[in-house]
Design goal:
63 residues; alpha+beta; 3 strands; 24% strand
């Protein structure tokens, strides 16, 4: 599933752990967003990361 992650947390160690777990790219835009492709089986865990306030999941049409 293609989506955009908005990074709420400023803690780089937390960002690194999330990136490593989901295999996302290490960069981000100046708007604190990263375009990613997440496997369907990982979506539930990514939603939990969002509920804890580290990220926001954004579904954008232009990917």
């Amino acid at each position: 599933m293609k989506l955009t992650i908005y990074w709420v947390t400023k803690d780089e160690s937390i960002r690194a752990r999330i990136r490593k777990r989901f295999g996302t790219p290490w960069g981000m835009t100046v708007n604190k967003e990263t375009k990613v492709e997440i496997r369907d089986e990982d979506m539930e865990l990514l939603r939990e990361v969002e509920r804890r306030g580290f990220i926001q999941i954004r579904f954008k049409k232009s990917f």
